[in-house]
Specification:
The complex is a heterodimer of chains A (236) and B (493).
Chain A lengths: L6 E3 L11 E5 L2 E7 L12 E4 L2 E5 L6 H7 L12 E5 L5 H10 L4 E5 L3 H12 L5 E4 L16 E6 L6 H12 E12 H4 L5 H12 L3 E8 L7 E8 L2
Parallel strand pairs in A: 6-7, 6-9, 7-8, 9-10
Antiparallel strand pairs in A: 1-2, 2-3, 3-5, 4-5, 10-12, 11-12
Chain B lengths: L1 E6 L2 E6 L2 E7 L3 H9 L6 H10 L3 E3 L2 H9 L4 E3 L2 H9 L1 H7 L6 H24 L2 H33 L2 H5 L3 H10 L7 H6 L4 H12 L8 H35 L1 H7 L1 H11 L2 H6 L2 H6 L3 H10 L13 H5 L2 H24 L5 H17 L5 H5 L4 H11 L4 H47 L3 H33 L2 H10 L2
Parallel strand pairs in B: 1-4, 4-5
Antiparallel strand pairs in B: 1-2, 2-3
Helix pairs in contact in B: 7-9, 7-12, 7-14, 9-12, 12-13, 12-14, 13-14, 13-19, 19-20, 23-24
The chains are: A alpha/beta (236), B mainly alpha (493).
Enzyme class (chain A): transferase
GO molecular function (chain A): histone H2AQ104 methyltransferase activity; RNA binding; rRNA methyltransferase activity
Family (chain A): Belongs to the methyltransferase superfamily. Fibrillarin family.
């Protein structure tokens, strides 16, 4: 089994940032990140050791960022030392992988409002990983976040609210640095069930255009139905 | 130019960018929250500020309020200054001596964030409404399990003593008899202990001596008996839960339970997530909580929206004639949401709410005493009713016995309903034709309208089929019920 495992560093658009890996496991090419806390599992994902380095498989069905990578994401600004504001941390599946990527000198501010999932987020992820600062607050009130400082390189938004785009924009205005990247997961079904998903994605993308350059828009099918990921860059 | 800056780890006073004085928190999470809630005393800080006797700018609104309370001359910083603080916060913390270097700052900030988040989780977990939600959900879960287990018990013990199934409605009594063991060991005393009347005891002893059932091995009997024991335990637990929900609801949501009753109120509360969130919902949402599937179907396809979700379980809605239910559900929901708001933000029990609701419901009852033409024609979902009929058959316990009569009447009413529905089906058919003509007429109009006409035509046809199906469904249902007859026979005793 170990012999089958191959690791290939994936090239991102600009440069080799060595942030995620393709690992061959069970005959399939799978995504993985290098485990920041060796031996620690977050969501019962598989751990694979190769050449003394431990990798965590990254399940595209559970993490929308992984799904976007599987569906040919072209821009991947998450790298060592990145500073990330993550809205909608939930139980921390995706956050844990970003935490792997940004490493000990990066920072992730994980914002989550619902206390039930925040419990799991704290227990499984935030308390083990020194680069995560958990914030239990409503993303609608970015002014009241304690413990956030400076501006961040990337804002990642995955919240299921009808007005999610506006919430995201308010947060970007306060915390995203100029030229920073913006990842927006659009859950069309939580915005309006009666409209067609495609139209909602167009409408929401339109709202970004005043302040952002849209880089890419990805349909997350088959990993998530009626979901899209929009990647944009904050205008200077 | 003095500025007072609040950070997560303490409060510091700067003068022209240089640190004047720092007041570190000994327990950052606790003290920071005190400041934010404007409950802090901050004696040292205030004494110091009073001593310098100069106007100071403050970085935080809550802090500003506290200082003003002690008549310190102060004002809020401008936003550019605030942005600057935000950007250089780790540096400020180091400068104030709250941490030794930037790396240390980061660690301390993270510790602070973890502590704060944990305290929030703890706080939320303690709120009593979450416990009520768990209790009512457990209750529903237990019902489900006990019902399934009860029918299994009847099947299994029925191999040994098949006649018992038809004689004893109450699963409690049934389980007690099973616990007594094999048929041979069922004495009169057992039946009496299980709480049956004399006439029934006579009959039971008679039947048990000449039962058609086979023998049951000791191993099998032991298992069956432990199932029976489980069912009795569940019954106990259910009673406890019911009482607990009742008292807890009275305590945290007296108004809501006055309007909805504690069980329905608790279920609605469970759907909403918390009492606070329930209080912030619109009444229209509460009206259809629990009917999400139907609601979204309606939003998507334009079909009839649901009249009620969980509110259907409310006595007023449930007992009302079909054509009044929507109106009553709306009235109940409207009062329920006000009740929830009084529970969260007001105080005590407000009697007038319930009185007003009663007046309104009476009004509806009078005004809409008879169904209008439209009400009769309204297609109603047959499947749902049928489903309930089947599911409820084995419903456990004394409730079924009490319910027996009511249900019997219900059966009759439903049967009449069936006839009416059958007529309705025909009328609907005519309706379909009429609509078809309408479609033709409309076809003379624009393109769009023509499409509309066609669609409507299809609709008419579909509805026609629907009518037929409903008719078949109706007849098969009313000819089937051997089981029903049986229950009637014994139910009367």
């Amino acid at each position: 089994m170990k012999d089958q495992i191959q690791i290939k560093r994936e090239r991102s658009l600009e440069e080799d940032n060595q942030s995620y890996f393709w690992i061959k496991s069970e005959g399939e090419k799978k995504l993985a990140t290098e485990n920041l806390v060796p031996g620690n599992q977050v969501y019962k994902e598989k751990l694979i050791i190769k050449k003394g380095v431990e990798y965590r498989l990254w399940d595209a069905f559970r993490s929308k960022l992984a799904a976007a990578i599987m569906n040919d994401l072209e821009y991947f600004p998450f790298e060592n030392k990145s500073k990330v504001l993550y809205l909608g941390a939930s139980t921390g599946t995706t956050v844990s992988h970003i935490s792997d990527i940004v490493g000990p000198s990066g920072i992730i501010f994980g914002v989550e409002h619902a206390s039930r999932v925040a419990r799991d987020f704290l227990d499984r992820v935030a308390s083990y990983r020194s680069n995560i600062i958990p914030i239990l607050q409503d993303a609608r009130k970015p002014k009241e976040y304690f413990s956030v400082f400076g501006k961040v390189d990337i804002v990642y938004v995955d919240i299921a609210q009808p007005d999610q785009t506006q919430i995201a924009l308010d947060n970007c205005e306060m915390y995203l640095k100029k030229g920073g990247y913006f990842f927006l997961v659009i859950k069309t079904r939580s915005i309006d069930v009666t409209k067609s998903p495609r139209r909602i994605i167009e409408e929401e993308t339109e709202k970004l255009k005043a302040n952002f350059d849209i880089l890419q828009s990805i349909d997350l099918y088959p990993y998530d139905k009626d979901h899209a990921m929009v990647i944009a860059k904050y205008k200077n | 130019m003095y500025s007072v800056i609040l950070t997560e780890l303490g409060i510091s006073i700067f003068n022209e960018g240089k640190l004047e004085k720092a007041f570190p928190f000994s327990n950052p999470v606790k003290e920071y929250l005190l400041v934010k809630n404007k409950e802090s005393k901050l004696n040292e800080l205030i004494n110091y500020l009073a001593s310098i006797q100069r106007g100071v700018s403050v970085s935080d609104e809550s802090l500003l309020v506290i200082l003003k309370k002690y008549s310190i001359d102060c004002y809020l910083m401008e936003s550019s200054e605030l942005d600057n603080i935000q950007a250089t916060k780790p540096q400020i913390i180091v400068d104030s001596g709250f941490a030794s270097n930037l790396q240390d700052t980061l660690g301390k900030l993270r510790e602070f964030a973890l502590g704060l988040s944990s305290s929030k989780v703890t706080e939320v977990s303690e709120s009593p409404d979450l416990h009520i939600i768990q209790a009512i959900n457990s209750l529903d879960e237990i019902d489900k399990i006990a019902n399934g287990l009860s029918s299994r018990l009847r099947e299994w013990y029925g191999l040994h003593f098949p006649e018992l199934d038809n004689i004893i409605d109450s699963i409690n009594g049934y389980a007690q008899i099973v616990l007594a063991g094999k048929r041979e060991s069922l004495t009169k005393q057992v039946f009496e202990d299980a709480g049956f009347p004399e006439s029934k005891v006579e009959m039971l002893s008679l039947i048990s001596s000449k039962s058609r059932g086979g023998d049951i091995s000791d191993v099998n009997l032991a298992i069956v008996q432990s199932i029976a024991k489980q069912i009795l335990d569940f019954h106990e637990l259910r009673k406890k839960l019911e009482e607990h929900v009742e008292t807890a609801m009275q305590e945290i949501a007296p108004n809501l339970s006055a309007i909805l009753g504690s069980a329905v109120g608790a279920r609605i509360l469970g759907r909403a997530g918390s009492l606070k969130r329930l209080a912030s919902l619109p009444a229209s949402t509460i009206q259809v909580l629990g009917a999400e599937k139907a609601l979204f179907r309606s939003l998507k396809t334009g079909s009839q929206p649901p009249k009620h979700g969980l509110l259907f379980q409310h006595a007023m809605v449930h007992a009302a004639p079909r054509w009044q239910r929507g109106k009553i559900a709306r009235a109940v929901a409207a009062k329920a949401v006000i009740a929830a708001r009084v529970d969260v933000y007001g105080e005590g029990l407000n009697q007038t709410l319930l009185e007003k609701l009663n007046i309104r419901v009476n009004e509806i009852g009078k005004k809409y005493e008879n169904p209008t033409e439209k009400d009769i024609r309204k297609p109603q979902s047959f499947r749902r009713e049928g489903g309930n009929f089947g599911d409820r058959r084995r419903e456990g316990g004394d409730r079924r016995r009490e319910g027996g009569d009511r249900r019997r009447e219900g059966g009759d009413r439903r049967r009449e309903g069936g006839d009416r529905r059958r007529e309705g089906g025909d009328r609907r058919r005519e309706g379909g034709d009429r609509r078809r003509e309408g479609g033709d007429r409309r076809r003379e109009g624009g393109d769009r309208r023509r499409e509309g006409g066609d669609r409507r035509r299809e609709g008419g046809d579909r509805r026609r089929e629907g009518g037929d199906r409903r008719r078949e469904g109706g007849s098969s249902k009313y000819e089937r019920p051997d089981s029903n007859k049986k229950r009637k026979k014994f139910g009367r005793r």
